[in-house]
Amino acid sequence: MKKLISLLLLTVVFISCKGPGTGPLVKDAFNKESQGQAHGQMPNQSMDGKTHAGQVTIEKMNVTVEPCDGCITIAKLMENKKSFAGNAIKIKGKVTKYNPSIMGKNWVHIQDGTEFGDGFDLTVTTDAIVAVGETVTFEGKIALDKDFGYGYTYSILLEEARVIK
What we know:
By secondary structure, the chain is of the alpha+beta class. The protein has helices at residues 2-16, 32-38, 74-79, 81-84; strands at residues 88-102, 105-111, 122-126, 135-147, 153-164.
């Protein structure tokens, strides 16, 4: 009889729990952000299920990089990006941010000191390992309006780049 009462009491307790922050055995220790993540949402996705733009903070650095032979500048790339779409280019810049092994690629941000409008930074995907502060020349293919989902879109991206010596 005691087992039956205990089982019944345990069943009532579990049924009354409706998720994080509810029920008699769960403390209200979740804020909205952690509740969203507990429900399988990405950090940039609100509780309403709508995806919001991923925010990548890029700071403009005070750099000056002389372009190499056959290289273009970030300003020229930004100004004429449609003419470079799908084409291989060479570009030289200083590494300002490096994120390794994301979606099987290393993600690099470079700047060369030039700008067009508000464009002064180029995101590069590569297998190469580089260091922040290093000046490198990349060769790769330009992709426009690349959408990786979860709000992460790139108006311009240098893909599958390799380091040129």
